[in-house]
Design a protein that fits this description.
This protein has 14 helices and eleven strands. By secondary structure, it is α/β, with parallel strands linked by helices. Helix 3 packs antiparallel against helix 13, helix 5 crosses helix 8 and helix 8 packs across helix 12.
């Protein structure tokens, strides 16, 4: 079953008051023993979790799936021990330690979620053809799905399903604690679409000023997506998104509108060149932004013969090669929206909000996250668990 991935956040502002240690005392889990069973197979990992999450951040890291913590509307399975351990190690290294390095432990201890819950399987929504990547409940609990499919060798996959989701959900917690400027909401007034964003392509929505299709669903998701994508996308990926934001996009005239909605999703929006703009019958397509390449978990463009490009340099080199044998013309940009400027304005508002409201350099946080994404050593991190006595 093909699905469009998205992030779902259910946040209730009044519950955020429960995030303060001053009101809750030293722990919000006073009835739970801090000492795991030494005879248990998971003893070292459980003790590491207590030492690095509960004792430091007052966080209960749940990797053994409990029915009471799961959504019974989904058919779910638990995370495997190995994947749960690795994701816990990376959550600390890539998320918690990024903030700690920049601003110390107190910040994320005060505002971070109190429960992190891992689920092994995906959470499909068959009625909408979508997939829930994460849930944030009342600012207290963040649930991550699809843990059993984790690929440690693919940082794009790790970001798509876990770490971009973490930064997205934490962005919701932060902006419901201290509101962001209403100017952000006004930048794309009238262009949000909460009902059919999942059928839109990344390049098309970028041309309208949205960093991802999900960002085009509503303003608060746009704000959280601006945070999460700036922090986790590589400079090459961001450059390609911004390059696409300057292009003209249109519906593919070859699409049969009578086809099913599912079959239209891959082809509905495209950026194309053709031989003769006066003769649509002779047109040739050279670029598509295709969701069939979502297995690569990155932003890309597809050439006429299925060539896949993940950088501006590759895309422009391809166009130059095509020009050697074809007269090509870009689609006229007629949406009257400067997508590039809008994305940059949104990033600027987020940057200033982090500085003014949180005394945090958004760019410095970005640099730390980017470095940690590239330098983590999972073997060394696993040794932290194995060395537990």
């Amino acid at each position: 079953m093909k699905v469009t991935k998205y992030i779902f956040a259910a946040l209730l502002l009044p519950l955020l008051a429960a995030c303060s240690d001053e009101k809750l005392g030293p722990s919000i889990f006073p009835e739970v023993s801090d000492e795991p069973d030494p005879a248990s197979y998971t003893y070292k990992f459980d003790k590491w979790l207590n030492q690095n999450f509960r004792d430091v951040y007052n966080v209960d890291f749940k990797y053994l799936m409990e029915d009471v913590e799961a959504d019974m509307n989904y058919n779910l399975v638990p995370a495997t021990y190995d994947n749960a351990r690795d994701l816990a190690l990376l959550t600390k290294y890539l998320w918690y330690d990024s903030y700690k390095e920049l601003i110390g432990e107190a910040f994320i201890k005060s505002y971070g979620p109190r429960i992190l819950h891992l689920i092994g399987s995906p959470a499909y929504n068959p009625n909408s053809g979508t997939e829930t990547l994460g849930l944030a409940e009342g600012g207290l609990k963040v649930t991550l799905f699809k843990v059993n499919e984790m690929d440690l060798d693919d940082i794009n996959m790790l970001n798509e399903f876990y770490f971009r989701t973490m930064h997205h959900e934490f962005g919701h917690i932060l902006h419901q604690t201290k509101s962001y400027p209403t100017d952000f909401n006004l930048l794309s007034t009238g262009r949000y679409d909460d009902s059919s964003w999942q059928s839109k392509q990344p390049g098309y929505v970028a041309s309208l000023g949205f960093i991802t299709p999900y960002a085009s669903s509503q303003a608060r998701e746009d704000f959280a997506e601006t945070i999460a994508n700036y922090l986790t996308r590589t400079p090459q990926q961001m450059e390609l998104i911004l390059w696409m934001s300057k292009l003209g996009w249109t519906k593919d005239p070859n699409v049969d509108e009578t086809e099913s909605e599912e079959s239209l999703k891959d082809r509905y929006y495209c950026y194309y060149y053709y031989d003769d703009p006066s003769d649509l019958e002779s047109k040739h397509y050279f670029f598509y932004s295709q969701e069939r390449y979502e297995k690569d978990y990155r932003v890309g463009l597809v050439g006429i013969n299925g060539e896949y490009f993940t950088s501006v340099a590759e895309a422009e080199a391809y166009l130059n090669k095509v020009k050697e044998t074809h007269e090509i013309y870009p689609v006229e940009d007629t949406d009257n929206v400067n997508g590039y400027e809008l994305i940059m304005q949104k990033q600027s508002i987020v940057r200033n909000w982090f500085t003014d409201q949180w005394k945090i350099s958004f760019d410095a946080l970005h640099d730390i996250v980017q470095r940690r994404q590239q330098d983590f050593d999972i073997v060394a991190l696993r040794q932290e668990v194995e060395s537990i006595q």
